[in-house]
Every structure is written in structure tokens, then in C-alpha cells.
């Protein structure tokens, strides 16, 4: 009965029938296709032939290997979403749920987030220079270019360092502030007060100053005490070697309304303050080096800026 109905429908579609006949044939086709008639299935050989005929340019990459897309991606990466089984049949332990792990006290995480600062000798000097410099500090307590330094293996050296290298090698603390509301000129006037001042004394001056930016500068200098302790530097021996003001790139603007229909633009500048703290021993060493340079200068006197003349009756020059 089903084959007869299908044959009659196809005959009606093959001939040039009226539109009403096509509309009546369509429901018959849908009922025939959705009926419980036996469906022809491909064999394994037919599937292999179709795969060979429709092979993709990317090979097996686009062929799904799992029940879901996630399983397919996991299998491509060499990982399985289900726990693997051991040879004895028991399942391996499940993966660690890192959302339940406390990383606040994990030593590896703390070492990554808060790395230990490197020493300047490890960054600037070569291995031999570093060994000589550390031996000079161990033998004499400080460095001097005239020192003869003896290494543990018996070799003797004289180490010559430039002034820039000496400044970098001295223990120091670098500080920077947040964005401060103020102008460059006002910040420069205030920071001149703190130059060459002891750290604790500068913090006291910031506490009692009436300047608006004094509070932010005081917080920055107080942070320097904590940084010095982490660097194993005594905060009592620190002083402000350098402190300067810089302009922030973003300047806030707003409309300035004036009388008689006029207007302008008001600028609200922001600044930042940076400082370098060094030890008092460093200051004494540089002052002593300056005195030594002055004392070791050769005696020199400038000649008079006058033409050369000869004494009358003499062959001597008159300067």
C-alpha cells in the first residue's frame, strides 16, 4: 500500500500538474517519509567509501572523536575528562580543585608574587669584579680605589669603579608617590625643604606642615621605612639623597564660566614625587672622596693675561 501511494505521488510530481495537485501531494509525501517504514542503512564498507570520497583537507583534525566537543578537544590535547584507570582496574585520583586551595601561605606563590630583591652587585658587576668588591668590603669595611685587595686564593687586585657605579652599588631605597593634586612649582618649593634631611626628621616635618601635599609625601617616606627593613637597611641611618617632582600626563579640564557670555578652560594639574634614600655612611664616603680630590690636586697658578714685555737693559721677560 505504501509503495503504491509513493508511486502515485511521484507520478503526479513528474507530470506538469496543476498547483492544487502539488499541494495535495506534499502531505502524502510527508506522511510516507515519517511512517514506520524500514530505512536502508549503510554498511561499514559503504561508510569507508564515503569517508574516502569526502576526505577533508585537514585530515582527521576535523573528525570528532568524542561524544561532545569538549571530549574531542580533550582527546586532541592528550588529556581525558574522565579519570584514567590503572592496570589493576582502579581509577586514579581526581584532579585537585584549585578553587579550594589556600594560596595565601603557599611558599611558591609568595616567592612569585613577592620576589626577593637582587643586590646591585649581582646586577651591575661581572663575577670577578663582584668577588673583588665583596672582598674589599669584608677586609676594609668600605671601598677605596687605592686599596690592594687579596682574594681567598691569594690573588691581589686593585679595583677601579666610576662614580656612577659607586652610586648604584651603595645601599639605597627608591620611593614613588601616588598622583597628587597640585602644581609642579608648589611641589618643587616643598621638596626643597626635605633635601639632604634625615628620614625621620623629614617625616616629622611632613606631619606638622600646612601644605596639602605634605600628607602624601609623609606616607611615601613612611613606606620607605618598611622597604628599608625588607632590604636589611637600618632606617635610622637613612637620609634623603634625592627628591624631585614630575608632572602627570593626564590633566583634568573643566569649563570656566565668565561674565557677559564668555567662557574658558580651567586646568587641574596632577604631579608625582619620587625620592632616593641612602645611608649616612655613603654621604660621609662621598664627602671624604671630594676632600681627597681637592687635597691631591697639583699646585697650579694662572698667568696674568698681559702681553710679554722686556725690561729695558735686560733680557728677562716681564709677565
TrEMBL record:
GO terms for biological process: translation. The keyword Zinc does not apply. One of its GO terms (cellular component) is mitochondrial large ribosomal subunit. It comes from the Eukaryota. The keyword Ribonucleoprotein applies. Keywords: Ribonucleoprotein, Ribosomal protein. One of its GO terms (molecular function) is structural constituent of ribosome. Residues 42-94 are annotated as: Disordered. Residues 42-70 have a biased composition (Polar residues). InterPro entries: Ribosomal_uL22, Ribosomal_uL22_bac/org-type, Ribosomal_uL22_sf. Pfam families: Ribosomal_L22 (PF00237). Belongs to the universal ribosomal protein uL22 family. This is Ribosomal protein L22. It comes from Magnusiomyces paraingens. The lineage of its organism: Eukaryota, Fungi, Dikarya, Ascomycota, Saccharomycotina.
